[in-house]
Amino acid sequence: MRIGIYDPYLDDLGGGEKYMMTIAEVLSHKHEVSVFWDNKDDFDGLVQRFGLDMDRVKLTKNIFAAGFNFFDRLQVSKTYDVIIVLSDGSVPIVASKKMFLHIQQPLSYLSWLSWKERLKAARVTGIFYNSEFTKIYNEKLFSGIRSSVIYPPVVLHAKDVIKENVILHVGRFRVKNVAGIDDYKKQSVMIEAFKKMVDSGLVGDWKFVLAVSIKEADKDTFAKLQQFAEGYPIEFLINKTNDELWETYNKAKIYWHASGFGEDIEAHPEFAEHFGISTVEAMGAGAVPVVFNAGGQKEIVTEKKNGLLWNTLEELEVKTKLLIDDERFLLQLSEHAKQRAQDFSKDMFSSEILHLIEKE
Length: 360
Fold this sequence. Notes:
The chain is of the alpha/beta class. It has helices at residues 15-27, 40-50, 70-77, 115-121, 132-138, 187-199, 219-229, 242-251, 277-284, 297-300, 313-325, 327-341, 346-359, and strands at 2-6, 32-36, 57-60, 82-86, 98-103, 126-129, 147-149, 166-173, 207-214, 234-238, 254-257, 288-292, 308-310. The model is unreliable at 177-181 (pLDDT under 50).
């Protein structure tokens, strides 16, 4: 089959882009796959960042770009058997035999689809989501269209190395002025929590490491975050490759995540973590997750079995200290975390994607 893939955010280095380009990689082993994008540097940067094998994937002119003629798009798309689009709720008009939408987050800002969007949605073959959390919030928008959940693939590069007293967080730094906080992933909240633990007499040479990807436009705001961490055992790893990140995953004992904290999740479910690839990666390396109790994180972590969930900053600190003080408990959760991470393998993802595209 001839398959085209479009991700409108390909210049971003987020989990959605890794997900979509892994689809391209997986399908390219059996089918002719093209990615619609005009900037090769964006594509090459993403391939390098996530260590993907894209030798069989073709980069082709973006038929979804604003300046591309609508009728030309129909003509080009007609030559494809399948087109897969990362969607924000909008439905493009294409003439391919099949069209699938992938949706990565709750679309709470869409209480309904316009009549025009509903007409376009009638041509959608199927929709697949990255978590049950995302699916539940969006199904009412696309009633009558077959939908499923295909969890993101997580390729583990765990090594048996000596663990260090490291609490790790991995995530994009993205400015999103929500609830008076200038970072979407709530890195400032976690820095404040760690500083409080240090000031309260944290025992041992523990340090907090934040591995973040940053876009040029956000660097000035990020500099303020770095200043906020000065004077404490807090380190920043900036725009590291996948291999470099795994060096840190393998050393870390504990993993922190705080997306959604301080938000009205019922009103804005999109502010919670939609799945949590970095959480699974950390678990695969044996780092025990201590993550905010919302969104897709609850589908990954089972309390006191393979990690810990928190609702307040006090809980974050107490549960983290419990792991620090009780090495046996930490090791027990670490082993179960490794086992849980295996449930999100690339082989499983490949099987489910191929079944969706070829059988639907």
